[in-house]
Amino acid sequence: MFSIQSRLKLLFVLIVTLVLAISGSYAQYSLGKELESSHQRLREGVLTRLAISLPPALWDFDKAKVDTIIEAEMLPLEVESIRVYDSAVELFASKARGADGRLVVPSGPPPPGGLPARRELVFRDAGLASTSIRPVSVGKVVVYFSRAQIDAALASELFRKLLEVLLLDIILVMALSLSLRVVFRPLRQLRDGLFELATRGTGEVEELPEDRRDELGDVIRGFNQIQRRLKSTIARIREAEDAARRSQQQSAQAMTDLRLTQESLLQAERLASLGSLVAGVAHEINTPVGIALTSASVLKDATDDMQAALAGGVLKKSVMLRYIATAAESSRLIMNNAYRAAHLIHSFKQIAVDQTSEARRPFVLMEYVEEIVTSLRPTLKTTRIALKFDGADDIVLDSYPGAFAQVITNLVLNCVEHAFDPEQPGEIRIHARLDVDVVELELSDNGKGIAPELLERIFEPFFTTRRGQGGTGLGLNIVYNLVVKQFNGTISVRSTLGHGTCFTLRLARVAPQAVPATGGAESAGAAFPERIAARPAVRQAMGDEGLPG
Q1: What's the pTM?
Q2: pLDDT for 53-76, tens place per residue?
Q3: Are the CB atoms for 103 and 74 separated by under 8 Å?
Protein backbone atom coordinates (compact mmCIF):
# COMPACT_ATOMS: atom_id res chain seq x y z
CA MET A 1 0.00 0.00 0.00
CA PHE A 2 1.49 3.33 -1.12
CA SER A 3 1.80 6.14 1.36
CA ILE A 4 0.37 9.57 0.59
CA GLN A 5 3.88 10.89 0.05
CA SER A 6 4.67 8.20 -2.52
CA ARG A 7 1.34 8.74 -4.27
CA LEU A 8 1.96 12.49 -4.45
CA LYS A 9 5.40 11.89 -5.96
CA LEU A 10 3.98 9.44 -8.46
CA LEU A 11 1.16 11.83 -9.34
CA PHE A 12 3.49 14.76 -9.94
CA VAL A 13 5.89 12.60 -11.97
CA LEU A 14 3.01 11.34 -14.12
CA ILE A 15 1.70 14.87 -14.66
CA VAL A 16 5.13 16.29 -15.59
CA THR A 17 5.90 13.29 -17.79
CA LEU A 18 2.56 13.60 -19.54
CA VAL A 19 2.99 17.34 -20.12
CA LEU A 20 6.54 16.91 -21.38
CA ALA A 21 5.47 13.95 -23.55
CA ILE A 22 2.74 16.04 -25.16
CA SER A 23 5.14 18.97 -25.62
CA GLY A 24 7.91 16.69 -26.96
CA SER A 25 5.51 14.95 -29.33
CA TYR A 26 4.44 18.29 -30.74
CA ALA A 27 8.07 19.43 -31.04
CA GLN A 28 8.98 16.11 -32.66
CA TYR A 29 6.10 16.48 -35.09
CA SER A 30 7.13 20.09 -35.91
CA LEU A 31 10.74 19.06 -36.36
CA GLY A 32 9.74 16.22 -38.66
CA LYS A 33 7.60 18.57 -40.75
CA GLU A 34 10.46 21.08 -40.95
CA LEU A 35 13.00 18.42 -41.90
CA GLU A 36 10.61 17.03 -44.52
CA SER A 37 10.14 20.51 -45.96
CA SER A 38 13.89 21.17 -46.00
CA HIS A 39 14.48 17.77 -47.60
CA GLN A 40 11.86 18.54 -50.22
CA ARG A 41 13.52 21.87 -50.98
CA LEU A 42 16.87 20.13 -51.22
CA ARG A 43 15.47 17.62 -53.74
CA GLU A 44 13.87 20.30 -55.82
CA GLY A 45 17.06 22.40 -55.78
CA VAL A 46 19.30 19.50 -56.79
CA LEU A 47 16.98 18.43 -59.60
CA THR A 48 16.53 21.97 -60.82
CA ARG A 49 20.24 22.67 -60.90
CA LEU A 50 20.97 19.38 -62.63
CA ALA A 51 18.23 20.05 -65.17
CA ILE A 52 19.89 23.35 -65.97
CA SER A 53 23.58 22.40 -65.89
CA LEU A 54 23.59 18.87 -67.32
CA PRO A 55 21.86 19.31 -70.76
CA PRO A 56 24.70 21.39 -72.36
CA ALA A 57 27.38 18.99 -71.11
CA LEU A 58 25.33 16.00 -72.18
CA TRP A 59 24.69 17.67 -75.58
CA ASP A 60 28.46 18.02 -76.04
CA PHE A 61 29.12 14.51 -74.64
CA ASP A 62 31.45 16.11 -72.10
CA LYS A 63 31.66 13.32 -69.54
CA ALA A 64 34.24 15.09 -67.39
CA LYS A 65 31.96 18.07 -67.01
CA VAL A 66 29.05 15.84 -66.22
CA ASP A 67 31.05 14.10 -63.48
CA THR A 68 32.11 17.44 -62.09
CA ILE A 69 28.52 18.66 -61.98
CA ILE A 70 27.42 15.39 -60.33
CA GLU A 71 30.17 15.58 -57.71
CA ALA A 72 29.23 19.19 -56.92
CA GLU A 73 25.57 18.26 -56.40
CA MET A 74 26.47 15.30 -54.16
CA LEU A 75 28.08 17.48 -51.53
CA PRO A 76 24.92 17.31 -49.30
CA LEU A 77 24.91 14.04 -47.41
CA GLU A 78 21.26 13.51 -48.24
CA VAL A 79 22.21 12.73 -51.87
CA GLU A 80 23.18 9.03 -52.15
CA SER A 81 23.51 8.53 -55.87
CA ILE A 82 23.07 10.39 -59.19
CA ARG A 83 22.66 8.54 -62.47
CA VAL A 84 22.58 10.36 -65.85
CA TYR A 85 21.09 8.61 -68.88
CA ASP A 86 21.43 9.79 -72.53
CA SER A 87 18.60 9.92 -75.02
CA ALA A 88 19.11 6.25 -75.85
CA VAL A 89 18.41 5.47 -72.16
CA GLU A 90 21.93 4.29 -71.58
CA LEU A 91 23.89 5.14 -68.47
CA PHE A 92 26.12 8.02 -69.38
CA ALA A 93 27.64 8.87 -65.99
CA SER A 94 26.96 8.03 -62.36
CA LYS A 95 28.27 8.64 -58.91
CA ALA A 96 27.37 7.04 -55.56
CA ARG A 97 28.36 7.57 -51.93
CA GLY A 98 30.38 4.75 -50.49
CA ALA A 99 30.28 3.30 -46.99
CA ASP A 100 33.08 5.65 -45.92
CA GLY A 101 31.31 8.70 -47.39
CA ARG A 102 33.52 9.01 -50.52
CA LEU A 103 32.11 9.27 -54.00
CA VAL A 104 32.63 6.23 -56.18
CA VAL A 105 31.40 5.00 -59.54
CA PRO A 106 28.63 2.48 -58.76
CA SER A 107 29.03 -0.90 -60.28
CA GLY A 108 25.67 -2.42 -59.41
CA PRO A 109 22.03 -1.52 -59.34
CA PRO A 110 20.84 1.58 -57.48
CA PRO A 111 20.55 1.39 -53.67
CA PRO A 112 17.26 -0.23 -52.59
CA GLY A 113 16.60 2.13 -49.70
CA GLY A 114 17.01 5.35 -51.60
CA LEU A 115 14.26 7.73 -52.63
CA PRO A 116 14.57 8.15 -56.44
CA ALA A 117 13.70 11.48 -58.04
CA ARG A 118 13.68 11.66 -61.87
CA ARG A 119 13.95 14.66 -64.10
CA GLU A 120 14.05 14.79 -67.93
CA LEU A 121 17.01 16.68 -69.36
CA VAL A 122 16.10 19.06 -72.19
CA PHE A 123 18.66 20.99 -74.21
CA ARG A 124 17.72 24.51 -75.29
CA ASP A 125 20.10 26.38 -77.62
CA ALA A 126 20.20 30.09 -77.02
CA GLY A 127 20.66 30.83 -80.73
CA LEU A 128 17.57 28.91 -81.63
CA ALA A 129 15.40 30.46 -78.99
CA SER A 130 13.76 32.81 -81.55
CA THR A 131 13.01 30.09 -84.04
CA SER A 132 10.20 27.71 -84.07
CA ILE A 133 12.43 24.73 -83.34
CA ARG A 134 11.29 22.95 -80.17
CA PRO A 135 13.78 22.00 -77.35
CA VAL A 136 15.51 18.65 -77.77
CA SER A 137 15.47 15.95 -75.04
CA VAL A 138 19.03 14.82 -74.52
CA GLY A 139 18.39 12.33 -71.59
CA LYS A 140 17.29 12.11 -68.04
CA VAL A 141 18.80 12.19 -64.61
CA VAL A 142 17.80 10.00 -61.59
CA VAL A 143 18.84 11.19 -58.16
CA TYR A 144 18.58 8.90 -55.08
CA PHE A 145 18.10 10.73 -51.79
CA SER A 146 18.56 9.22 -48.32
CA ARG A 147 16.34 9.80 -45.23
CA ALA A 148 19.08 8.75 -42.85
CA GLN A 149 19.84 12.35 -41.88
CA ILE A 150 16.19 13.03 -41.17
CA ASP A 151 15.83 9.87 -39.10
CA ALA A 152 19.06 10.60 -37.26
CA ALA A 153 17.92 14.13 -36.48
CA LEU A 154 14.53 12.88 -35.26
CA ALA A 155 16.12 10.14 -33.17
CA SER A 156 18.56 12.62 -31.67
CA GLU A 157 15.72 14.99 -30.82
CA LEU A 158 13.69 12.14 -29.31
CA PHE A 159 16.64 11.04 -27.19
CA ARG A 160 17.16 14.61 -26.06
CA LYS A 161 13.51 14.91 -25.06
CA LEU A 162 13.58 11.62 -23.16
CA LEU A 163 16.71 12.65 -21.34
CA GLU A 164 15.07 15.97 -20.54
CA VAL A 165 11.97 14.26 -19.15
CA LEU A 166 14.09 11.88 -17.07
CA LEU A 167 16.19 14.68 -15.63
CA LEU A 168 13.12 16.77 -14.86
CA ASP A 169 11.45 13.80 -13.16
CA ILE A 170 14.52 13.16 -11.04
CA ILE A 171 14.79 16.83 -10.10
CA LEU A 172 11.03 16.91 -9.34
CA VAL A 173 11.21 13.80 -7.14
CA MET A 174 14.13 15.22 -5.21
CA ALA A 175 12.43 18.57 -4.82
CA LEU A 176 9.18 16.94 -3.74
CA SER A 177 11.01 14.71 -1.28
CA LEU A 178 12.64 17.71 0.32
CA SER A 179 9.40 19.71 0.27
CA LEU A 180 7.09 16.96 1.51
CA ARG A 181 9.48 16.07 4.30
CA VAL A 182 8.61 19.42 5.86
CA VAL A 183 4.92 18.41 5.83
CA PHE A 184 5.03 14.70 6.47
CA ARG A 185 7.55 14.66 9.31
CA PRO A 186 5.11 16.34 11.73
CA LEU A 187 2.31 14.26 10.21
CA ARG A 188 4.24 11.11 11.09
CA GLN A 189 4.65 12.46 14.60
CA LEU A 190 0.89 12.99 14.75
CA ARG A 191 0.30 9.47 13.40
CA ASP A 192 2.63 7.91 15.98
CA GLY A 193 0.99 9.96 18.71
CA LEU A 194 -2.49 8.85 17.66
CA PHE A 195 -1.37 5.22 17.46
CA GLU A 196 0.14 5.36 20.93
CA LEU A 197 -2.97 7.12 22.21
CA ALA A 198 -5.14 4.36 20.77
CA THR A 199 -3.01 1.40 21.95
CA ARG A 200 -1.52 2.62 25.20
CA GLY A 201 -2.80 4.33 28.28
CA THR A 202 -3.34 8.05 27.96
CA GLY A 203 -1.05 8.71 30.88
CA GLU A 204 1.86 7.05 29.04
CA VAL A 205 1.62 9.21 25.89
CA GLU A 206 3.69 12.37 25.87
CA GLU A 207 2.54 15.56 24.18
CA LEU A 208 4.13 16.58 20.87
CA PRO A 209 6.49 19.59 20.79
CA GLU A 210 4.71 22.84 19.95
CA ASP A 211 7.70 24.85 18.69
CA ARG A 212 6.41 25.15 15.10
CA ARG A 213 4.76 28.45 14.12
CA ASP A 214 2.98 27.35 10.96
CA GLU A 215 -0.24 25.56 10.06
CA LEU A 216 1.16 22.19 11.15
CA GLY A 217 2.09 23.74 14.48
CA ASP A 218 -1.57 24.71 14.90
CA VAL A 219 -2.57 21.12 14.11
CA ILE A 220 -0.07 19.77 16.69
CA ARG A 221 -1.34 22.20 19.31
CA GLY A 222 -4.91 21.11 18.52
CA PHE A 223 -3.85 17.45 18.88
CA ASN A 224 -2.26 18.16 22.26
CA GLN A 225 -5.41 19.97 23.35
CA ILE A 226 -7.54 16.99 22.26
CA GLN A 227 -5.17 14.67 24.11
CA ARG A 228 -5.51 16.72 27.30
CA ARG A 229 -9.28 16.76 26.99
CA LEU A 230 -9.31 13.02 26.25
CA LYS A 231 -7.23 12.36 29.35
CA SER A 232 -9.66 14.43 31.38
CA THR A 233 -12.64 12.60 29.83
CA ILE A 234 -11.09 9.19 30.47
CA ALA A 235 -10.37 10.18 34.06
CA ARG A 236 -14.01 11.20 34.50
CA ILE A 237 -15.14 7.98 32.82
CA ARG A 238 -12.99 5.92 35.17
CA GLU A 239 -14.42 7.80 38.12
CA ALA A 240 -17.93 7.18 36.74
CA GLU A 241 -17.09 3.49 36.23
CA ASP A 242 -15.85 3.24 39.80
CA ALA A 243 -19.01 4.97 40.99
CA ALA A 244 -21.14 2.68 38.79
CA ARG A 245 -19.27 -0.36 40.11
CA ARG A 246 -19.89 0.76 43.68
CA SER A 247 -23.50 1.49 42.80
CA GLN A 248 -23.82 -1.94 41.21
CA GLN A 249 -22.45 -3.57 44.33
CA GLN A 250 -24.85 -1.55 46.43
CA SER A 251 -27.69 -2.46 44.07
CA ALA A 252 -26.73 -6.13 44.27
CA GLN A 253 -26.66 -5.89 48.05
CA ALA A 254 -29.99 -4.07 48.00
CA MET A 255 -31.40 -6.73 45.67
CA THR A 256 -30.18 -9.44 48.03
CA ASP A 257 -31.72 -7.61 50.98
CA LEU A 258 -34.91 -7.11 48.98
CA ARG A 259 -35.04 -10.79 48.08
CA LEU A 260 -34.49 -11.74 51.71
CA THR A 261 -37.17 -9.24 52.73
CA GLN A 262 -39.53 -10.62 50.13
CA GLU A 263 -38.90 -14.15 51.33
CA SER A 264 -39.48 -12.96 54.87
CA LEU A 265 -42.72 -11.28 53.80
CA LEU A 266 -43.82 -14.42 51.99
CA GLN A 267 -42.98 -16.53 55.02
CA ALA A 268 -44.76 -14.03 57.24
CA GLU A 269 -47.76 -14.19 54.92
CA ARG A 270 -47.78 -17.96 55.17
CA LEU A 271 -47.33 -17.90 58.94
CA ALA A 272 -50.06 -15.27 59.23
CA SER A 273 -52.35 -17.49 57.20
CA LEU A 274 -51.36 -20.44 59.37
CA GLY A 275 -51.96 -18.38 62.52
CA SER A 276 -55.39 -17.40 61.29
CA LEU A 277 -55.98 -21.06 60.48
CA VAL A 278 -54.95 -22.09 64.00
CA ALA A 279 -57.24 -19.52 65.63
CA GLY A 280 -60.19 -20.42 63.40
CA VAL A 281 -59.78 -24.15 63.77
CA ALA A 282 -59.36 -23.81 67.56
CA HIS A 283 -62.61 -21.86 67.69
CA GLU A 284 -64.31 -24.33 65.34
CA ILE A 285 -63.20 -27.36 67.35
CA ASN A 286 -64.51 -25.78 70.54
CA THR A 287 -68.15 -26.34 69.48
CA PRO A 288 -68.08 -30.11 68.78
CA VAL A 289 -65.77 -30.72 71.74
CA GLY A 290 -68.13 -28.74 73.99
CA ILE A 291 -71.16 -30.65 72.72
CA ALA A 292 -69.32 -33.97 73.19
CA LEU A 293 -68.25 -32.94 76.68
CA THR A 294 -71.80 -31.89 77.63
CA SER A 295 -73.22 -35.13 76.20
CA ALA A 296 -70.65 -37.16 78.12
CA SER A 297 -71.53 -35.24 81.30
CA VAL A 298 -75.24 -35.94 80.78
CA LEU A 299 -74.46 -39.60 80.10
CA LYS A 300 -72.33 -39.79 83.28
CA ASP A 301 -75.10 -38.25 85.41
CA ALA A 302 -77.64 -40.69 83.96
CA THR A 303 -75.22 -43.56 84.59
CA ASP A 304 -74.74 -42.41 88.20
CA ASP A 305 -78.52 -42.29 88.73
CA MET A 306 -78.80 -45.74 87.19
CA GLN A 307 -76.09 -47.10 89.50
CA ALA A 308 -77.78 -45.47 92.52
CA ALA A 309 -81.18 -46.95 91.63
CA LEU A 310 -79.58 -50.34 91.05
CA ALA A 311 -77.75 -50.15 94.40
CA GLY A 312 -80.93 -49.06 96.27
CA GLY A 313 -82.97 -51.84 94.74
CA VAL A 314 -85.49 -49.42 93.28
CA LEU A 315 -84.65 -49.94 89.60
CA LYS A 316 -87.75 -49.58 87.52
CA LYS A 317 -88.52 -50.08 83.87
CA SER A 318 -89.21 -46.39 83.34
CA VAL A 319 -85.81 -45.52 84.79
CA MET A 320 -84.14 -48.06 82.53
CA LEU A 321 -85.95 -46.76 79.43
CA ARG A 322 -85.10 -43.17 80.31
CA TYR A 323 -81.44 -44.13 80.76
CA ILE A 324 -81.36 -46.00 77.46
CA ALA A 325 -82.86 -43.01 75.64
CA THR A 326 -80.41 -40.64 77.31
CA ALA A 327 -77.46 -42.94 76.53
CA ALA A 328 -78.51 -43.30 72.88
CA GLU A 329 -78.88 -39.56 72.33
CA SER A 330 -75.68 -38.75 74.20
CA SER A 331 -73.76 -41.42 72.26
CA ARG A 332 -75.09 -40.05 68.97
CA LEU A 333 -74.09 -36.51 69.87
CA ILE A 334 -70.69 -37.62 71.17
CA MET A 335 -70.10 -39.72 68.03
CA ASN A 336 -71.13 -37.04 65.55
CA ASN A 337 -69.21 -34.27 67.25
CA ALA A 338 -66.19 -36.52 67.74
CA TYR A 339 -66.25 -37.22 63.98
CA ARG A 340 -66.57 -33.52 63.34
CA ALA A 341 -63.67 -32.66 65.65
CA ALA A 342 -61.56 -35.46 64.20
CA HIS A 343 -62.27 -34.21 60.68
CA LEU A 344 -61.34 -30.66 61.64
CA ILE A 345 -58.19 -31.81 63.41
CA HIS A 346 -57.23 -34.02 60.47
CA SER A 347 -57.76 -31.18 57.98
CA PHE A 348 -55.91 -28.71 60.19
CA LYS A 349 -53.05 -31.16 60.74
CA GLN A 350 -52.69 -31.92 57.04
CA ILE A 351 -52.97 -28.28 55.90
CA ALA A 352 -50.66 -27.05 58.67
CA VAL A 353 -48.03 -29.71 57.92
CA ASP A 354 -48.25 -29.01 54.16
CA GLN A 355 -48.00 -25.24 54.54
CA THR A 356 -44.92 -25.47 56.72
CA SER A 357 -43.25 -28.06 54.50
CA GLU A 358 -42.09 -28.19 50.91
CA ALA A 359 -42.51 -31.97 50.76
CA ARG A 360 -44.00 -33.51 47.68
CA ARG A 361 -46.62 -36.24 47.74
CA PRO A 362 -49.64 -37.48 45.79
CA PHE A 363 -53.07 -36.29 46.96
CA VAL A 364 -56.70 -36.48 45.85
CA LEU A 365 -57.51 -33.09 44.34
CA MET A 366 -61.14 -32.48 45.37
CA GLU A 367 -60.70 -34.11 48.78
CA TYR A 368 -57.75 -31.87 49.47
CA VAL A 369 -59.66 -28.81 48.23
CA GLU A 370 -62.45 -29.67 50.70
CA GLU A 371 -59.89 -29.99 53.50
CA ILE A 372 -58.47 -26.57 52.57
CA VAL A 373 -61.93 -25.04 52.52
CA THR A 374 -62.76 -26.73 55.81
CA SER A 375 -59.79 -24.98 57.39
CA LEU A 376 -61.24 -21.70 56.09
CA ARG A 377 -64.72 -22.28 57.52
CA PRO A 378 -64.13 -20.04 60.56
CA THR A 379 -63.47 -17.13 58.22
CA LEU A 380 -66.33 -17.99 55.88
CA LYS A 381 -68.85 -18.41 58.74
CA THR A 382 -68.86 -14.65 59.28
CA THR A 383 -69.91 -14.06 55.66
CA ARG A 384 -72.89 -14.92 53.49
CA ILE A 385 -70.70 -16.56 50.87
CA ALA A 386 -71.37 -20.14 49.77
CA LEU A 387 -68.70 -22.45 48.33
CA LYS A 388 -69.56 -25.06 45.74
CA PHE A 389 -67.34 -27.81 44.35
CA ASP A 390 -67.61 -29.34 40.92
CA GLY A 391 -65.05 -31.91 39.88
CA ALA A 392 -64.31 -35.59 39.51
CA ASP A 393 -63.42 -37.43 42.72
CA ASP A 394 -60.72 -39.53 41.04
CA ILE A 395 -58.27 -36.74 40.06
CA VAL A 396 -54.96 -37.40 41.83
CA LEU A 397 -52.07 -34.94 41.75
CA ASP A 398 -48.44 -35.84 42.36
CA SER A 399 -47.30 -32.40 43.40
CA TYR A 400 -46.65 -30.06 46.33
CA PRO A 401 -49.73 -29.92 48.58
CA GLY A 402 -48.39 -27.13 50.77
CA ALA A 403 -47.92 -24.77 47.82
CA PHE A 404 -51.28 -25.89 46.39
CA ALA A 405 -53.00 -25.14 49.69
CA GLN A 406 -51.40 -21.70 49.71
CA VAL A 407 -52.70 -21.05 46.18
CA ILE A 408 -56.30 -22.11 46.97
CA THR A 409 -56.29 -20.26 50.32
CA ASN A 410 -55.06 -17.01 48.79
CA LEU A 411 -57.52 -17.19 45.88
CA VAL A 412 -60.51 -17.90 48.14
CA LEU A 413 -59.57 -15.19 50.65
CA ASN A 414 -58.94 -12.76 47.78
CA CYS A 415 -62.51 -13.42 46.56
CA VAL A 416 -63.90 -12.99 50.10
CA GLU A 417 -62.07 -9.72 50.68
CA HIS A 418 -62.44 -8.05 47.27
CA ALA A 419 -65.36 -9.58 45.38
CA PHE A 420 -68.13 -8.97 47.92
CA ASP A 421 -69.17 -6.21 50.26
CA PRO A 422 -69.81 -7.07 53.94
CA GLU A 423 -73.11 -8.95 54.42
CA GLN A 424 -73.45 -9.30 50.62
CA PRO A 425 -74.54 -12.80 49.62
CA GLY A 426 -72.44 -14.52 47.02
CA GLU A 427 -71.08 -17.73 45.64
CA ILE A 428 -67.58 -19.09 45.01
CA ARG A 429 -67.39 -22.06 42.72
CA ILE A 430 -64.38 -24.38 42.33
CA HIS A 431 -64.44 -26.53 39.23
CA ALA A 432 -61.77 -29.06 38.24
CA ARG A 433 -61.36 -31.24 35.18
CA LEU A 434 -58.57 -33.44 33.80
CA ASP A 435 -57.33 -32.75 30.27
CA VAL A 436 -55.00 -35.70 29.52
CA ASP A 437 -52.10 -34.95 31.92
CA VAL A 438 -53.08 -31.37 32.69
CA VAL A 439 -55.50 -30.38 35.45
CA GLU A 440 -57.56 -27.29 34.73
CA LEU A 441 -58.88 -25.68 37.89
CA GLU A 442 -61.32 -22.75 37.76
CA LEU A 443 -62.13 -20.63 40.78
CA SER A 444 -64.92 -18.16 39.98
CA ASP A 445 -67.21 -15.83 41.88
CA ASN A 446 -70.28 -13.75 41.08
CA GLY A 447 -69.01 -10.66 42.82
CA LYS A 448 -68.15 -7.12 41.76
CA GLY A 449 -65.47 -8.02 39.19
CA ILE A 450 -62.19 -6.25 38.43
CA ALA A 451 -61.78 -3.04 36.43
CA PRO A 452 -60.08 -3.59 33.01
CA GLU A 453 -57.21 -1.21 33.84
CA LEU A 454 -56.38 -3.28 36.94
CA LEU A 455 -56.41 -6.73 35.33
CA GLU A 456 -52.82 -6.45 34.09
CA ARG A 457 -51.54 -5.42 37.53
CA ILE A 458 -53.23 -7.77 39.96
CA PHE A 459 -50.27 -10.18 39.99
CA GLU A 460 -47.72 -7.43 40.65
CA PRO A 461 -46.06 -7.55 44.07
CA PHE A 462 -47.41 -5.08 46.64
CA PHE A 463 -50.25 -3.98 44.35
CA THR A 464 -53.50 -3.77 46.29
CA THR A 465 -56.71 -1.77 46.16
CA ARG A 466 -56.99 -1.93 49.95
CA ARG A 467 -53.87 0.00 50.89
CA GLY A 468 -54.18 1.08 54.52
CA GLN A 469 -57.00 -1.41 55.15
CA GLY A 470 -54.86 -4.44 55.86
CA GLY A 471 -54.02 -5.39 52.26
CA THR A 472 -50.38 -6.30 51.60
CA GLY A 473 -50.56 -6.85 47.83
CA LEU A 474 -48.71 -10.15 48.13
CA GLY A 475 -51.55 -12.65 47.95
CA LEU A 476 -51.97 -12.94 44.19
CA ASN A 477 -48.24 -12.42 43.63
CA ILE A 478 -47.58 -15.47 45.81
CA VAL A 479 -50.19 -17.37 43.78
CA TYR A 480 -48.56 -16.35 40.48
CA ASN A 481 -45.04 -17.28 41.62
CA LEU A 482 -46.14 -20.67 42.99
CA VAL A 483 -48.17 -21.59 39.88
CA VAL A 484 -45.54 -20.45 37.36
CA LYS A 485 -42.29 -21.31 39.14
CA GLN A 486 -43.05 -24.26 41.41
CA PHE A 487 -45.80 -25.98 39.37
CA ASN A 488 -44.49 -24.78 35.98
CA GLY A 489 -48.09 -24.00 35.09
CA THR A 490 -50.12 -21.02 33.94
CA ILE A 491 -52.69 -18.78 35.55
CA SER A 492 -55.05 -16.40 33.78
CA VAL A 493 -57.90 -14.19 34.89
CA ARG A 494 -60.96 -12.81 33.16
CA SER A 495 -63.44 -10.47 34.69
CA THR A 496 -66.34 -8.20 33.86
CA LEU A 497 -67.44 -5.42 36.19
CA GLY A 498 -70.61 -6.48 37.96
CA HIS A 499 -70.44 -10.06 36.70
CA GLY A 500 -67.67 -11.61 38.78
CA THR A 501 -64.15 -12.92 38.21
CA CYS A 502 -62.73 -16.26 37.11
CA PHE A 503 -59.18 -17.48 37.77
CA THR A 504 -58.07 -20.38 35.53
CA LEU A 505 -55.10 -22.53 36.59
CA ARG A 506 -53.52 -25.16 34.38
CA LEU A 507 -51.23 -27.51 36.32
CA ALA A 508 -49.45 -30.68 35.33
CA ARG A 509 -50.96 -33.73 36.99
CA VAL A 510 -47.40 -34.82 37.76
CA ALA A 511 -45.31 -31.84 38.70
CA PRO A 512 -42.00 -31.39 36.83
CA GLN A 513 -38.87 -32.97 38.29
CA ALA A 514 -40.88 -35.39 40.39
CA VAL A 515 -39.15 -36.92 43.40
CA PRO A 516 -40.38 -40.19 44.97
CA ALA A 517 -42.56 -39.28 47.95
CA THR A 518 -41.52 -40.40 51.43
CA GLY A 519 -42.74 -39.92 54.97
CA GLY A 520 -45.98 -37.94 54.90
CA ALA A 521 -47.10 -39.43 51.60
CA GLU A 522 -48.13 -42.66 53.32
CA SER A 523 -50.95 -41.11 55.33
CA ALA A 524 -52.56 -39.27 52.40
CA GLY A 525 -51.82 -41.40 49.38
CA ALA A 526 -51.45 -45.01 50.51
CA ALA A 527 -54.90 -46.14 49.39
CA PHE A 528 -56.56 -43.57 47.17
CA PRO A 529 -59.38 -45.81 45.88
CA GLU A 530 -60.42 -46.72 49.41
CA ARG A 531 -60.35 -43.10 50.55
CA ILE A 532 -62.27 -41.92 47.52
CA ALA A 533 -64.91 -44.58 48.06
CA ALA A 534 -65.12 -43.76 51.78
CA ARG A 535 -65.82 -40.02 51.35
CA PRO A 536 -69.64 -40.33 51.00
CA ALA A 537 -69.76 -42.77 53.95
CA VAL A 538 -67.84 -40.34 56.18
CA ARG A 539 -70.20 -37.52 55.24
CA GLN A 540 -73.22 -39.72 56.01
CA ALA A 541 -71.81 -40.85 59.37
CA MET A 542 -71.10 -37.25 60.41
CA GLY A 543 -74.74 -36.27 59.84
CA ASP A 544 -76.10 -32.79 59.54
CA GLU A 545 -74.52 -31.63 62.77
CA GLY A 546 -71.13 -32.87 61.74
CA LEU A 547 -70.89 -31.04 58.40
CA PRO A 548 -68.29 -28.24 58.53
CA GLY A 549 -69.69 -24.75 58.65
Answers
A1: 0.39
A2: 888 888 888 888 988 998 898 888
A3: yes
